[in-house]
Amino acid sequence: MAKRDNLKSTTSVIVDLPANKLDLADWIVHFPNDEYVACTPATGAHKQMYVYRDGDGDWVFRNDESCGGFVMTQLYRAEIMEPNHVFLVSPRTKGRFLGFVPMTFQITWNIKVEPRDDNRSTFICTVGARLNLLYFLAGLLIRLSYWTEAHLEEETPRFADSAARWATRDD
Question: d(Cα 15, Cα 4) in Å, to the nearest integer?
Fold first, then answer.
């Protein structure tokens, strides 16, 4: 179970599909690495993403990325995998502050789709972190919340487009 985040940012975009047409759980397990990397074209923040099953058959999502001076490797586990809601937790994200100070902290990735009207939905992406006091203060100094919001603003519309393409692949 995820601990409560002390840093959190949310972005949403409108998708021109009804919410019941999108299946986030199916999309994310089929999200290819090259498409994940392409979701941050301006910053190049996304380095790689691999989805696989562990020995117990549970999904694991390995993401390598950078944001606001932190280079991170996340090993997410699913707490919620539903068509309209995916909640992933990386309890021991490995990171490097400014590229060289080693850190370990929790990251959460929460993706939802909600109906907007009969033909459109809202795709909502929230990223949270549970930072200890020292990391939290360092994050304030480098304006980590600003960089996290900018990162979400870059990736969320592309995630939504990818999920929509996956939902209509057989149409």
Answer: 29
Pairing of strands 121-130, 46-53: unpaired
Percentage helix, strand, coil for the chain under 3-state DSSP, each rounded to 5: 30, 45, 25
The Cα 138–Cα 136 span in angstroms is 5
Amino acid at 143: R
Q: Indicate whether 63 pLDDT > 80.
A: yes
Helix 133-141 vs helix 144-167: angle between axes, to the nearest 10 degrees?
90
140 contacts: CB under 8 Å, gap ≥ 6: none
The rounded distance, in Å, linking the Cα atoms of 150 and 140 is 15
Q: Is the pLDDT score of 161 beyond 90?
A: yes
The per-residue pLDDT for 141 is: 61
